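lol so apparently i was supposed to do this last week
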Amino acid sequence: MTKTEEKLNFGADVSRLLDIVAHALYSNRDIFLRELISNASDACDKLRYEAIASPDLVKNDPEFKIRVFKNTDDRTLNIVDNGIGMTREELIDNLGTIAKSGTAAMMKKISDGGTQKEKMSLIGQFGVGFYASFMVANKVTVISRRAGDKQAWLWESDGKTGFTVREATKKEAKALMEGRGTAIILHLDDEASDFLIDEKIRQVVETYSDHIDFPIFMNQEQEENEKPVNSVTALWVRPKDDITEEQHTEFFRHIGFGVDEPLLTSHWRAEGKIEYTALLYVPTMRPMNLFDPGRKTSVRLYVKRVFITDECEGLVYPWLRFLRGVVDSEDLPLNISREMLQHNPLIDKIRNGLAKRILGDLNKLADSDPLSYGMFWGQFGAVLKEGLYDAFEHREALLKVVRFYSTHEERTLTSLSDYVSRMKEGQEIIYYISGENLETLKNSPQIEGFRARGIEVLFLTDTIDDFWLQTVLDYDGKPFQSVTKGNIDLDRFETEKDEEKKDHKDESEESSIGELRALIAETLKEEIGEVRISKRLTSSPVCLVAADNEVDLRMERVLRVHQKYESTSKRVLEINPDHTLIKRLAAMMDNKARNTELADAAWLLLDQARIIQGEPIPDPAGFTKRMSNFMERGLAA
Ligand code: ADP
Ligand code: MG
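anyway here it is w/ magnesium ion bound
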């Protein structure tokens, strides 16, 4: 009666994952049960949803449930659910390959090395899922019948190279409850014999599944007055104060595929025009796919306790995509199709409500626990800032929670309101410098003059910064301005040395610096739009800045890479009149014989400014030649 058995190999990723599971995870093997119960619960969720449109699917057995029990005779642990079940093709696809995005990336990270703990956390983030079974079993048998189908199938594997699939016999299919769903049969390793003890099973099930809202029983057959191990109420429905931190952590791990703890938990019930309950978590660690271009969100949508989807586009803003959790709506119709959700105005309202609440809670966290907030910011700040660009309606709230490093205290994050409170008398502008690397920014010549005058400059290191700054023009009426752009009048603010400098102003020196400026401008006229006496510089001889009407230097670079942008106007070279080198060069202006030397110097100064900017030198051969000439002369002198 059984058709011939088919033997298939695991996908390459599965084989590698199984290898890791067998070796790396052993210390925390109890989690296999969480994974399997989680899958059973997902399967019940899926069928409950399908049964709204096709009630026939569940008419034999409308009560969803999960059974976890041992069989001492054949040394097995069994996890049986009456959920959606799997067809032959689904068994092959779901249990033979990994469809999840980011698999390859994770495998690479793991094989790149790292401590056991790091690997563990990576795998945990990714979720080993079903394959965790092989941490305790040397053979796994899966019997499954898709709800509504006639045929049940049997999948079996030793977790090494491949698996077999065949039709299940009538007798084998008896492992299923009321003829639908899935039975996972784990043939336990000797080392996992403790899972043949009811107390052990109960303890692990209790730890991992209190939040599961389908009853979990420990008997194989239905018995009178049988009592579930778990409390069978959806966690988010319970009163806020009744939920322990451990329960939150477990639930967060169930829905978020994480091993970390929630950094922030927001649980509330919205009442009034629209009604919903939301239980949202901010993870401690970045999910693997945070920066995938799809910007996918994964908060689960329920309608009146029935799971609808975890891919509801529009339920959460893409810039809050790090959120994990549940939204349970009272207003949406149960039979709403997933496709219809996207354009539903209720979803828009909920999305807004979630964002408001989360931004408010983040703001509170920033006040009450700056250390945790700093951790949050390090992980998710760059994502949150996308909102400044995307969501005008939440801009004000976002501007309250954004943080930056700045020249004020280099290791401490600052808020914009703190920046404003430290602004100098007469300062109307919020100054920033943007670039990829914080250390490079800290050493930028363009900020020297600001430092000397005690004017704070924000360091912006995320690519997104350059984009939101195009649309967010001010904070609290104070415009943002890049210090690498335009002519900034810093003379209004005195430096500590200004007093003495005034006494020593030397007119002849000033005029020769003017001549030097003209000579440099003439020499570099193909490359540089203007040469300017700098207010920005105190210790470097030169720097580059963008012209007034241009985008700042970093934005120019970003645009060049992403949009093949060619700037139309040339940059400005600023020279520092107080720098010894510039003074010496100026002193050489009298001597016409040395004009070629000065022209070489002009080119070298420009190339220096490019290097410190982290930009390539367009003519390295010319640079090297001039440099050697200078060194030769220097050594000869
Ligand atoms: P994930 O749950 O993250 O998708 P798993 O490795 O845990 O990954 O499971 C892989 C897939 O196998 C699931 O997505 C699901 O489609 C299928 N599956 C696993 N267990 C069951 C089950 N008990 N009933 C139905 N489908 C299941
Ligand atoms: Mg799973």
